[in-house]
């Protein structure tokens, strides 16, 4: 598929996607959001894509937010549709049954922070900055920021970012659990791809069920979540990969997973 604002490069089984509007600090205009949605819809059905790494073009920004020019022109009903498109897109990332890693290479503000939070893992460059500055514009986040941020860092820290509109650096984001690792800028994407490949050495169906168990469990009472985990565990035991993984361990050899 051809995109105007996304560059897609396959590194073996990992799709490395770069949002390419560096002159606007990769701000998410409608076109870019629609392309991200289309990319993840196609990635879900594309067996050649086993993991996704997302980053921003240039050395300054991952994504500096939703496009403020577009927000300025929205009517209230258009704003609801605008928020729903972003929410649906980001939920499709969170629910993709393949490891998705945000490689945050600079500003991740507003919709950029919300985009990063919808990925399963986040790695950041040392110059990365995170924030939800919407209140400075007289609005609130509309792409899931008020929901995913407290789930990731806790209510108190989330409200500090949401109410102050301030930014935190990569070190602080690591300290509060918003990012998994921090790397020098020039090594960021290679390390994100390395992390994706580390995940891909494992059973692909197990990866997808693990993502599903965590996603569903986060939104359910503990008894329901545990019952769901047990059912998904049962499903994984029914796979050829489970027989291969356990046999390989017992036979002291490397497992050859087939995703079946
Ligand atoms: N929407 C639309 N355009 C944006 C943008 C956004 N969220 N963020 C940056 N840009 C544009 C700027 O308007 C500027 O375009 P121009 O050169 O045509 O004037 C270009 O990107 C470069 O940004 P600039 O502000 O000049 O860079 P800077 O280094 O001085 O500041 C930021 C960087 C990130 C601090 C600043 O751009 C900023 O505060 N952006 C908005 C962040 C925000 O509020 N995001 C939440 C949106 S809901």
Commentary on this structure:
This protein is an alpha/beta fold. It folds into 2 domains: 6-200, 2-enoyl-CoA Hydratase, Chain A, domain 1 (Alpha-Beta Complex), CATH 3.90.226; 204-250, Lyase 2-enoyl-coa Hydratase, Chain  A, domain 2. The protein is 49% helix and 17% strand. It has 11 helices and 10 strands. The strands form 2 sheets. A 6-stranded mixed beta sheet has the order 1-2-3-5-7-10, sandwiched between helices. The longest helix is centred in the N-terminal third of the chain and has 19 residues, at 76-94. The two termini are 27 Å apart. The structure holds coenzyme A. Coenzyme A binds at residues 24-25, 27, 64-69, 107, 109-111, 133-134, 137.
Task: List key phrases describing it.
260 residues; single chain; 6-stranded mixed β-sheet; 4-stranded mixed β-sheet; alpha/beta; 2-enoyl-CoA Hydratase, Chain A, domain 1
